[in-house]
């Protein structure tokens, strides 16, 4: 099925999120849709998938104009979308999630789960998805959950599949496996749209690249000849530096000291087992590892969100092992959480209210028990300007912003305070190259001012670019430590796999 978007325009109030866009999506091809946060990528695909109705323009399927009243119409027309945030019922099995809403039935309208399992196994085998139909979602790693979302659209006979930021939460190994699945789908004749801002991934998997900026198509490139620098310039409208400008290390006194720390997960099982390390003033410590090896629990213990089982945490000599999240914030720890939707923002609140979430008690934003809303919104306006948050006003609901713009507000909120230690977990997840450059510059500015910095990331390039010292976690322990200049990707990769642990 060939899809043509002609003159698509979509406005929200006075703002045009997408303006007069022409795009062709062909069967047997991977079209990468590249752009900054807020460039209009997701809006355009939400129009294609029936979630939004265009204000102007038309959609043609195999040359025939169609109109979608909702997502159901698009699905019935053969268009499926795999969203960045999965839409699965955790307590259901794979088969139950795949058939939800279109359940196969037997006599007397009884649910035929055996038929559902057979269909899931058949689709899974055909496209190399390798998913157990009887597995429960809540016990599955993220990479397998994504395969279930793919199964859902294939079960509904999708001929065109839109992937919205599909690798944002995947490990490097899962990304490689995902690309193999995408190529399998392409070779089976599916039309694939790959929405992303990750340049190297685009060059690796795309057959054609279209770049959006400010709601318009500004270029179409051939991945065989395009370069990352060229794509970044098209996205941002200026040259982008990929290398982090990291000044020489001037290590000061210890800011954070962690001694034999042990932390349990939600099931009471040990997630962090006997970790010891320190962070000095003016030093960036990177923590690498495949997701699920204790990094999340470690960060939560350092920021007061999870109680340590044993061990000790000191901040500038003060014992904070059992301090609350509020205490850690008040004592000078900035925290950029790995999941902004769960721990960083409230989607129905406006930007100013989200800025006030952890500053409501500070004198700059409060007078006694009363919030000084004028000051809150003035601070928010400065953050919008300084961190290039694409929002019309501090009164905008943050849930209407793209994920990258939400992240920029969270980082701006944390870095705008006078803190001793910054703990940033997956800080550039879902953020475009221009904003990554800016965030990294801000981290290095904080480091130059003598702040301690911990960056937890599954992006090895980010860790290598920022960190003066790298710790690799495997099964809750430090499996390797590498000093700047001696960090080798091969050895780090071995440590991530547990070699020598």
Automatic annotation (TrEMBL):
Chain segments annotated as transmembrane: none
One Pfam family matching this protein: ABC_tran
InterPro entries per the UniProt record, alphabetical: AAA+_ATPase, ABC_carbohydrate_import_ATPase, ABC_transporter-like_ATP-bd, ABC_transporter-like_CS, P-loop_NTPase
Gene3D superfamilies: P-loop containing nucleotide triphosphate hydrolases
Keywords carried by this UniProt record: ATP-binding, Nucleotide-binding, Sugar transport, Transport
GO terms assigned for molecular function: ATP binding
PANTHER family in the cross-refs: CARBOHYDRATE TRANSPORT ATP-BINDING PROTEIN MG119-RELATED, GUANOSINE IMPORT ATP-BINDING PROTEIN NUPO
Family listed: Belongs to the ABC transporter superfamily.
Protein name, entry field: Simple sugar transport system ATP-binding protein
């Amino acid at each position: 099925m060939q899809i043509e978007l002609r003159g698509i325009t979509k406005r929200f109030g006075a703002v045009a999120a997408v303006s007069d866009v022409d795009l062709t999506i062909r069967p047997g091809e991977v079209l990468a849709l590249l752009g900054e946060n807020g460039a209009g990528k997701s809006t355009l695909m939400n129009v294609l998938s029936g979630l939004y109705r265009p204000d102007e323009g038309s959609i043609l399927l195999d040359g025939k104009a169609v109109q979608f009243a909702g997502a159901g119409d698009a699905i019935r027309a053969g268009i499926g979308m795999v969203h960045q945030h999965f839409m699965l019922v955790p307590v259901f099995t794979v088969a139950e999630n795949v058939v939800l809403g279109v359940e196969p039935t037997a006599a007397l309208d009884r649910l035929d789960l055996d038929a559902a399992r057979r269909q899931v196994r058949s689709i899974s085998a055909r496209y190399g998805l390798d998913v157990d139909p009887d597995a429960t979602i809540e016990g599955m790693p993220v990479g397998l959950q994504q395969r279930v979302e793919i199964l859902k659209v294939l079960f509904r006979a999708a001929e065109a599949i839109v992937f919205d930021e599909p690798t944002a939460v995947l490990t490097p190994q899962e990304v490689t496996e995902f690309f193999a699945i995408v190529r399998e789908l392409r070779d089976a004749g599916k039309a694939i749209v790959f929405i992303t801002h990750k340049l190297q991934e685009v060059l690796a998997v795309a057959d054609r690249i279209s770049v959006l900026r400010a709601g318009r198509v500004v270029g179409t490139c051939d991945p065989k000849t395009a370069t990352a620098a060229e794509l970044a310039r098209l996205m941002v409208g200026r040259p982008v530096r990929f290398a982090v400008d990291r000044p020489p290390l001037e290590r000061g006194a210890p800011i954070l000291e962690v001694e034999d720390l042990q932390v349990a997960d939600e099931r009471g099982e040990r997630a962090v087992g006997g970790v010891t390390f320190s962070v000095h003033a003016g030093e960036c410590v990177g923590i690498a590892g495949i997701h699920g090896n204790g990094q999340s629990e470690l960060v939560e213990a350092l920021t007061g969100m999870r109680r340590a089982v044993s061990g000790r945490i000191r901040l500038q000599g003060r014992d904070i092992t059992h301090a609350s999240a509020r205490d850690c914030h008040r004592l000078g720890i900035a925290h950029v959480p790995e999941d902004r939707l769960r721990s960083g923002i409230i989607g129905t609140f406006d930007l100013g209210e989200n800025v006030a979430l952890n500053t409501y008690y500070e004198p700059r934003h409060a007078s006694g028990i009363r919030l000084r809303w004028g000051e809150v919104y003035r601070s928010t306006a400065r953050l919008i300007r300084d961190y290039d948050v694409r929002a019309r006003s501090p009164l905008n609901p943050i849930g209407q912003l793209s994920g990258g713009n939400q992240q920029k507000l969270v980082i701006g909120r944390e870095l705008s305070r006078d803190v001793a230690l910054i703990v940033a977990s997956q800080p550039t997840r879902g953020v475009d190259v221009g904003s990554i450059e800016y965030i990294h510059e801000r981290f290095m500015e904080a480091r130059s001012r003598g702040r301690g910095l911990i960056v937890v990331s599954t992006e090895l390039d980010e860790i290598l670019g920022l960190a003066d010292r790298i710790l690799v976690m495997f099964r809750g322990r430090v499996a390797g430590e590498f000093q700047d200049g001696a960090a080798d990707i091969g050895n780090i990769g071995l440590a991530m796999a547990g070699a020598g642990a």
